[in-house]
Amino acid sequence: MEQPVRVGIIGFGFMGTTHYRIYRENPGARVAAIADVDLLKRQGDIHVVTGNIGGGDNSQPLDLAGCKTYADGMELIADPEVDLVDICVPVFLHKKYALAALAAGKHVLCEKPLSMTAADAAEIVAAARTDGKAFMVGMCVRYWPEYRYVREQYRAGAFGRVRQAFFKRFSPTVNGNGWQNWFADRDKSGGALLEMHLHDTDQILYFFGRPQRVTTAGCRGVRSRDCWDHVFTTYDYGDGSLIVAEGGWTAAKGTPFEMSFQLICERATVMLNHAGLNIYYEDGRQEKPALPSGASATGWHEELNYLIAAIRSGQPANRFMTPPEIIDGLCIVEAERQSAETQQTINVTYQE
Predict the structure, then answer these.
(1) Of 147, 324, 24, 296, whose CA–CA distance to 7 is shortest?
(2) Quick one: CA dihedral 297, 7, 85, 2, positive or negative?
(3) What CATH number corresponds to the domain at position 80?
């Protein structure tokens, strides 16, 4: 593709505006259209948009010159001047727009989680497989430079076999944020279990493969309407390792966001926290690795730039996440939910 990829963004909240800014920096992309039910957002006024990490100055209007605007996402999908549909609406609407965009022959990026259930994800993935266009889910932590570097080094055997791993993702409350306070509505978001904790469940899948069983404890209804707002899960691989992920959004507004991990392996301990990425070897050496040259500031940049490059080269956009893995992550989270609700260890059932 010689011309820039013409992007249409459905949903102009935190992720939609974040994506918009990144596309504007990429000469291979052009934001051709946005769709949002909010008239002010369609005019570039995003002062109500908030997020838990990154983003930009939302106090000033965005310059939407050259962008078509739609109140209805289906009208954007029908626009022949849109090549890529970027879906950034609340989770319960993902399936509707993803299937429509695929049926219209568009390239599709859908924010995470792909859907509320593994069964719906499988339906969307099946539609994408028959379409022949680029299809990707916004599991941005797979692209986050520090996470990706450590995962690649681990899988190459640099640290030896994992003995213990701890992943954390703590956010201030999102209650009151977003259209109709959708984050706090179990039927619209799936709660912190799907909206936040899924990232670390997916990292565990990405680093170590499929766990056999999960044991989850949590609390719900703290900041939401009966959502799981904070969870703690152990993932059983049947090999004696201790793999844990904890995350949620019960902290007060203004509390710093945290995404961190610690891997204790046979030959090294690897830590990512407020001090950055550091490696402590069993022989006493310490290393603060330099990330690969050209790595972008965030996983969102890496993710979107990779997708645009894949579309322009005609390549499938599945280097970092295969279609089965999209479904696997939701299968694991469904087992976690069942474990939290029953207070029992649950075997994970995968769709083959």
Answers:
(1) 24
(2) negative
(3) 3.40.50.720
Q: What span, in angstroms and rounded, lies between the C-alpha atoms of 272 and 315?
A: 32
Rounded to 5 degrees, φ, ψ at 340 are -65, -40
Looking only at the bridges linking them, the beta strands covering 29-35 and 5-10 are parallel
Q: Which H or E element spans position 219? A: strand 213-220
Q: What whole-number distance in Å separates Cα of residue 166 and Cα of residue 147? A: 13
Q: Are 146 and 277 in contact (CB under 8 A)?
A: yes
Q: Are both 87 and 167 inside the same structural domain?
A: no
In terms of residue numbers, what domain contains 219?
Answer: 161-265+329-347
pTM: 0.95
Read off the pLDDT of residues 198-222 as tens digits, 9 standing for 90 and up: 999 999 999 999 999 999 999 999 9
Q: What is the pLDDT of residues 45-97, one digit of tens each?
A: 998 888 777 666 788 889 999 999 999 999 999 999 999 999 999 999 999 99
Distances (CA, A) of 18 to 21, 101, 313: 5, 21, 24
Query: In terms of C-beta density within 10 A (0-12 exposed, 13-18 middle, 19 or more buried), how is residue 352 classed?
Result: exposed
Strands 213-220 and 162-172: unpaired
Distance CA 101, CA 95 (A): 10
**Beta carbons within 10 angstroms of residue 276's beta carbon:** 10
Hey, how many other C-beta atoms are within 10 angstroms of the C-beta on 132? 10
Burial of 11 (0-12, 13-18, 19+ CB in 10 A): buried
Q: Are residues 205 and 131 in the same domain?
A: no
Cα 20 to the center of its chain, rounded Å: 16
How many domains in the chain?
2
Asked whether 68 and 46 are in contact (CB, 8 A), the reply is no
Question: Pairing between strand 268-273 and 258-265?
Answer: antiparallel
